[in-house]
Amino acid sequence: MARKTQQVETKLVSEYVKNQYGQFPHITKQPLGLPSPELLVTEGYEKGLRMQRPLRFEVDAIVMHPKWLILIEGKVWHIKNGVGDLIAYRSLVPFTPELKQYLNREVLLELVVPWTNPNLEIMCRDNGIRLQVYHPEWINEVANRVQLYGTRDYRTAREAKLRDRELLGLE
Amino acid sequence: MVLQNIVILEDGKPARLHFSDHLIEKRTITDPNTGRPGSRNVLVFSVDRLDGRAVDARYSTMAEKLAVQFEPYLKDKSYKNYEIIITQNGEGFQRRWSVQFIPFASR
């Protein structure tokens, strides 16, 4: 079956972090939180941590600034969810074994979105989250595609394209 | 120079790499579920350092989830300015990669 999804938010955050914080060490897709103690006991520390990796919450990026540990979450569609995600992630930082060496730094929260609205700005301000609007050219194309998705012409053309890709063995 | 041609990541074990170049290759891959061959884009990096040792090796990935984390660094090949630590975990669709970029200037 031909692929139908696209990693939009990961691309947005990777680009933003490179442009904004490329001079500092940074991690993309960092798992957060405490692994289950039972599993660490039964399976050992390393294996236990490994087994839990897909189940742990994951922040899109972390920047190790000399003064701050900056947690970055990118949202393209459900932009409001980024506020709640970041607040929850901040509470997990002190319990994340991989971040132990950075706990002396102040934690900053940054929400990266391609578009905003006044209510999102109020929520971010109220929760101490820095709101960054990052709108690369390619995001317009993604937005147009999603807007057109519900139309019959677009769906017909897309189904034909996926069928051809499968017939030709192309990804 | 360590003789090692292909870098294979171990689950949960961070690998520290330096990439000197990259290319996107088209490969014919047989789908393990359907048994049918298909053409896939593969991101291939030339690796000249692995865990502190000099190597002449390649690291490749077909996973969009991982490739997209490198995408902004491909056009200008700015990955050359970083040491990159990749930690891979999980199987199949549950596979995840954490990628740490350490700029040379900050070391």
Fold and architecture overview:
The complex is a heterodimer of chains A (171) and B (107). By secondary structure, chain A is of the alpha/beta class. Helices cover 46% and strands 20% of the residues of chain A. Chain A has seven helices and five strands. A five-stranded mixed beta sheet of chain A has the order 1-2-3-4-5, with helices on both faces. In chain A, strand 4, helix 5 and strand 5 form a beta-alpha-beta unit. Chain A is globular. Chain B has one domain. Chain B has a five-stranded antiparallel beta sheet, with helices on one face. Chain B starts with 14 loop residues before the first strand and ends with a strand. The interface between A and B is medium-sized, with 30 and 32 residues. Strand 1 of chain A pairs antiparallel with strand 5 (96-103) of chain B.
**The first-level CATH class name of the largest domain in chain A:** Alpha Beta
Element string of chain B (H = helix, E = strand)? EEEHEE
Instruction: Report the span from N to C terminus of chain A.
Output: 8 Å
- Percent range of helical residues of chain B: 10-25%
Number of helices of chain A: 7
Element string of chain A (H = helix, E = strand): HEHHEEHEHEHH
Beta-strand content estimate of chain A: 15-25%
CATH-level-2 architecture of the largest domain in chain A? 3-Layer(aba) Sandwich
| Uncertain regions spanning at least 5 consecutive residues of chain B | none
Query: What general form of chain A does the structure show?
Result: globular
**Helix and strand composition category of chain B:** mainly beta
Q: Regarding quaternary structure, how should these chains be classified? A: heterodimer
Question: Which features would summarize this protein structure in a list?
Answer:
heterodimer; A: 171 residues; alpha/beta; Trna Endonuclease, Chain: A, domain 1; 2 domains; five-stranded mixed sheet; 7 helices; 20% strand; globular; B: 107 residues; mainly beta; five-stranded antiparallel sheet; 51% strand
